[in-house]
Structures are given as C-alpha cells and as structure tokens.
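Support reply, case 0932

Customer input (verbatim):
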Amino acid sequence: MGNKAWSQLDFRFVAAPVLRALRDDTGETATLSVLSSHSRIYLDQYESSQEIKMVVETGVPYPLHSGASSRAIIAFLPEIYTEEAVAQMRQLKPDFDEKLYRKTLHEVREDGYAASLNERNTGAASIAAPFFDRSGNVLGSISSCGPVFRFNLENSAEHAKKVVAAAHQITDLLNR
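Our regenerated output:
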C-alpha cells in the first residue's frame, strides 16, 4: 500500500506541470488517470478556466470499457482486460458491437490516443493518451476534456497532437 501511494504521489508530482500546460494550451480541463487493478482512477485534474467545463471526481474507480481515458489504457493491456470489457459491455448494452469495439482499440494503438463524444456522459467530450513505464507497460492516461460543443473535426487533430505530446512528456519524465 505504501509503495502504491508513493507511486501515485510521484505521478501527480511529475504530471502536474505537464497537465497545467495542457490545460492552458487547450483551454480544457486536463486529467490524470492511473490503472488500478481492473479499473482506472482519476488522480488529479487541472480545471479549465472557462465557465462551462468538465470536472471529474478523483479517487473513484471507473471501468476500463468506456470513455477515452479508459480506452487509452485498455488498448495497451493484455487481452484478458479486453475480454472483461467486452463481457461487461454485452451486459450493459444488448446491441453492443464487439467487432467495432475491438476495431476502435486497434485504432487507439495505431493513433496513440482515444477520443469520446457523449460516451460516458451526455454533453461530455474527451481526448486521452496513455503514458508508460520504462518497460513499455501502460501506467495510465491523461486527457483533455470539456463540453462536446467545443470538440469538433476542425480542431480535433491538433488537440489530439497536444494530448499525445503531453503523454509522451510524462512518460519521459517518469523514466528519467
């Protein structure tokens, strides 16, 4: 337990300046999530200064099956995690399209980021990218999130580049 607490404190400490810069650069809330067993937990966030913004609850476990922050993690985990997510999604949504879900995870691995619009919450949007340890194991993800009306095709590619660059920076800082 003590080692876990220290590693989480290190994540927040290392990620803080990167998340603040991402928030300032995008104008959206920047979050830090870490893998915790078979779920993820928001450890930290830097809120947007805009009046309408996303705010997340830290310290609460979220499933790995839905949302950009979760998909940015699960796409880089062993297949057993995907199997669990597929089983959970089948229970939640009778019309769940497993083939599309697996294709989406493949695209996250190729592109290096995940995006979601109205997925976990109506009106919410997010772009997330994973960060890794020295051995290439995914540790968590960072995201830039806000109201869906500010996330559109014109700005999403540039926004994604900023999130991916920030995640790479955190990976580099953690592995020094």
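We compared this against your earlier run and they match. Two observations from our side: Residues 15 and 144 are 13 Å apart (CA to CA). The chain has one domain: 2-174. Please reopen the case if you see a mismatch on your end.
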